[in-house]
Amino acid sequence: MAKGRLGVVVTAGAGAMLVLASACGGGDGGTKRGELAAESSHPVTVTPADGATAVKPDGTVEVKAASGTLDGVTVQGGGKALPGEFVADRKSWHSTRTLVPGADYTVSVQGRRNGKPVTVTSRFSTLKPSKTLRIVDITPNQAGEKVGVGMPVFVRLNRAVTGKSAKAAVERALTVTPEKPVEGAWRWIGDDRLVYRTRTYWAPHQKVEIDAKLAGVSVGNGVYGVKDSAATMRIGAEQITKGDISDHEMTVYRDGEKVRRIPFSAGNGSTREYTTTSGVHLLMERESHVTMVSPGRKPGDPGYYKTDVDWAVRFSNSGEYTHSAPWNVGIQGSANTSHGCLNLSPANARWYYDHAQRGDVLALTGSSRKVEWDNGWSFWQMSFDKWKQGSALS
């Protein structure tokens, strides 16, 4: 039998039938049709088919060899390589993540048949959706910032995602990888917002990688994720402040060591509004100068106030801060007279401001008003088992 050259035949269908003939050789230089057909009876199949267009991005790329084995499969598209894995006998390969919408893909296959190397190439393109899903923000995201051991991860999307299966698809695309592992879970706090919280506080002094492999993820109604996103969160020292509102003081601990005792004057308790909340708070932001205005009141109303303060650190959405209060230094540590904030001396307020990290823990006791789990970042008020119930994967 005369030896033929390597032949590749691509036919349309569910997959591209890539037929591998025998290796190149001498002889009479010709190839007989019957001989080629006989040698080509065991195809390699690539799905999607060669030349396919408008392929759904949430599909899978598959390569199967009924004869011989696969040495390597490379799929390039959307500016990156598509990850995948072989079956144990290396007769098949499949992708392990979704595709980039509106992208051209090239599949390159290297294999062996009868001990001879073969190479096959196939191309297809994915559909470009009219409605897209993307991440607008991942917090924390400030360059060079170190955060506290209680810090949550916030993800905000550009559109609402409804339905448990669609939300589950988004969650499966999100991974949080700390250097020092700890159990955690996402919770939806709106159709376009998720928060990740751990069962226990993060270990200090480590990096946490957040990856959102959203490209190609389908959430129904023709909406697909269009790009991946990523962020790195850096956990700083473990800074936990414990305070007793009835005793008018708090103590700051850093990595387990007591570093400062701070007297304060908390809310006077005359109304619920003027009662400082008890519970596990997280420090949310720092502002060197803030104008405090009584909520729901205008000038001339009973209880109206407008006060400028320095070195303010917010710990709730209901207007609670630690801040400098030079007007009542003499009673700090002995009486509660504020409108709900923790009044500190100028020196203590500046020190606390300078050392505060977003996500540091401020645990307060001693008042009749408990902070709500969704008041600011007080997510630690909720048990972790209940927290997980807000996940679409629960």
Descriptive account of the structure:
- This protein has 4 helices and 29 strands.
- 8% of the residues lie in helices and 40% in strands.
- The protein has helices spanning 33-39, 164-172, 346-355, 384-388, and strands at residues 16-19, 43-47, 52-55, 62-65, 69-77, 80-81, 84-86, 92-95, 104-113, 116-126, 131-133, 135-139, 146-147, 153-157, 174-178, 184-190, 193-198, 206-212, 223-225, 229-235, 239-244, 249-254, 257-263, 279-282, 285-293, 306-314, 321-324, 342-344, 361-365.
- The chain has 3 domains: 16-126, Immunoglobulin-like; 131-236, Immunoglobulin-like (Sandwich); 239-380, L,D-transpeptidase catalytic domain-like (Beta Barrel), CATH 2.40.440.10.
- The protein is mainly β and 394 residues long.
- A 5-stranded antiparallel sheet has the order 1-2-4-8-7, with no helix packed on it. Strands 3-10-9-5-6 form a 5-stranded mixed sheet, with no helix packed on it.
- A hairpin with a 2-residue loop joins strand 9 and strand 10 (116-126).
- The chain starts with 15 loop residues before the first strand and ends in a 6-residue tail after the last helix.
- Mean pLDDT is 89; it is low at 1-42.
- The radius of gyration is 31 Å and the shape is elongated.
